[in-house]
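Progress against Task 2.4 (sequence-to-structure conversion) is shown through the following example record, which the project officer requested during the mid-term review.
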Amino acid sequence: MEFERGAPELAAAVRRLFDAHRHKTIATLRRDGGPRISGTECEFRDGDLWFGSMWMARKAVDLRRDPRFALHSGSDDPPEGDPSTWSGDAKLSGRVVEDAERTEPGGERSHVFRADIDEVVWTRVGSPADHLVIEMWRAGEGVVQFRR
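Structure tokens generated for the chain above:
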């Protein structure tokens, strides 16, 4: 994965955030171009990000029609008293490639998607806790960090 090769420290932090919670939130595009938010699970395997969908669920239909997506890691609330110890949250976006269909135990079919990642963002509270630290990676551009 280009992201892991180009930004290994950021990739490790983002992976920890995605691995910290089972359920993530994915945004896809409806037929009319409007956003659709769905729950999903994902996993990093063999250097790639993978996720699935129930057979012909709205999320899968959206992705088959328009492969663009955004995925949010989920996060805990910053600790009271010292928000700078908060690990933050992560977002990534890109396009999916439908890799295969699989048959689940019980005979149900499902979709399997591999993500081609274009952008990754890690947001956390700085120290002192009077600003946010945002690290962003974009394909072909590398990592930039800014404060707000």
